[in-house]
Amino acid sequence: MTMSSLRRTLRLLPVLASGLLCTLAHSQSAQELNTRALAATCANCHGTDGRAVAGSGSARLAGQSAGFIIEQLQAFRSGSRPATVMHQLAKGYSDAQIRDLATYFSAQR
Amino acid sequence: MQRREWIKAVAGAGAIAGLVGCATGKVTPSSAQVLVVGGGYGGATAAKYIRLFSRNTVDVVLVEPNHNFISCPISNLVVGGVRRLADITTSYDGLRDRHGITVVHDTVTAVDAARKSVRLANGADIRYDTLVLSPGIELLFDAVQGLLQANAEGQVLHAWKAGAQTEALFRQLQAMPDGGVFALAIPEAPYRCPPGPYERASMVAAYLKKNKPRSKVLVVDANQDVTSKGPLFKKAWADLYPGMLEYRGQHKLVGVDMPTRTLRFDFQDAVKADVLNVIPPMRAGALAVQTGLANANGRWCHVDFLNFESTAAPGIHVLGDAIQTAPGMPKSGHMANNQAKVAAAAIVARLKGLEVNTSPMLTNTCYSFVSPSEVIHVASVHEYVAAEKTFKAVAGSGGVSAARSEQEALYAMAWARNIWADTLG
User: Fold this and answer.
1) How far is B212 from chain A (nearest CA, A)?
2) pTM (2 decimals)?
3) Suppose B293 and one of B213, B223, B301, B387 were both cysteines; which one would form an S-S bond, judging by CB atoms 3.0 to 4.6 Å apart?
4) ipTM here
5) Which domains are assigned to chain B?
6) Cβ pairs A/B, distance under 8 A
7) In chain B, which stretches have pLDDT less than 50?
8) Is B66 helix (H, G, I), strand (E, B) or coil?
9) If contacts are CB pairs under 8 Å, which of residues 13-42 in chain B contact chain A?
10) What CATH number did the domain enclosing A87 receive?
11) Which residues constitute the domain of residue A93?
12) Which pLDDT score is estimated for A100?
């Protein structure tokens, strides 16, 4: 095994371990999967699981409070918070979807 | 780390690498739970999100001939000379190192749907349980007389697949004499990236305004009129490039004559230019066509929009520009990335015995540069409508920029950096 492939394998260890632990910890539900897929519609601009690329200029959603996320999305929808694009996108999601998104992102780190 | 611990870590790593099989080696794997063919916005995202959604429990192999991902979005800035190819290039290492995906750099030459197996150019076969094809587009050079040869000789470029031609087109622009004409020919819709040609015309005009102000951009479009963000593009052209950028609709290109550098049309007068940039008509990538998946006019692939499974071949999912789109759904990188996530969730649900989501969502946000510092956008949100078995834009959502702005240029680059990381990081 070369040093570079060793380094790759070592980097992979946490991935493998976390996969194993999650599988053992609890099995997945359809609802969790659907919520995660819904949240993934935000990832193009706000990063995978809401972890925006540092310094990119996009807001980080991971770890924000659920109340704050709901408030901001509602403000975009009503027009009380001015925007270039978010007012158009926020209108595409229902109240229930906004709640699910907020709950999901607030639980990410 | 102490030496003894280091040795233990090495031994453990070796054992796990053996279990996952070929995660670190160069040997082509003989089978895959999910095999993804094509590492563009659709395929790379599908590979990553099948790993994420399954919590790394589904084994994924990605086959992609290129060693790096070169983005079509932002590539018009390379054509206009304000970015370099390196700025729009991302490695596949993240998919392999951070997500445990086996990345094979080779070309799939054939799919045997009955045997659930693909053949690679190197002669090896990979068996699969589930196949995801994100084959991109095939450019139909034969639709324009003389184009195949002129393109092969490097005289008439398309630069519609980001890479060597993107840089070569910028060099043609640089070499053009001041006072010359840069002609851009656009095919009939549907084609990859609806606003892309108009962004290119804008970026070429910006380069000429600064460097060769007596020159001109001539846009000859097979469509009736500008197909995307029309009023915003036209206002930018009138304000920023008056007398420099001429737009002509209803110009269907039928032939390219070299060395007179002439474009011939079905009805309109021929035009001569110094640089000829021809975007040919296109269809689904050749692999999809030869596999019998292009069942929409022989050009695009009909899919079941709940999981993006081909309607021609169950067990094969098709993503991105190759599909017959739903109403209002553009052929864009952002859309391919979002389609991939819907498909990934459906594939993971099926493999885990979970109910497949009956109300998936998609978004699209597309930024276009009208100058190096100003941008316009179009955005939409799409929901699955079960009664019609298709995606439709959510009523009241979406829209275009109120006006071009420098603020949106910052957001466009933020979008690029985040979607590249989301797709490949």
Assistant:
1) 33
2) 0.91
3) B301
4) 0.91
5) 21-138+283-357 (3.50.50.60), 143-280 (3.50.50.60)
6) 178
7) 1-25
8) coil
9) 13-14, 16-17, 20, 23-25
10) 1.10.760.10
11) 27-106
12) 98
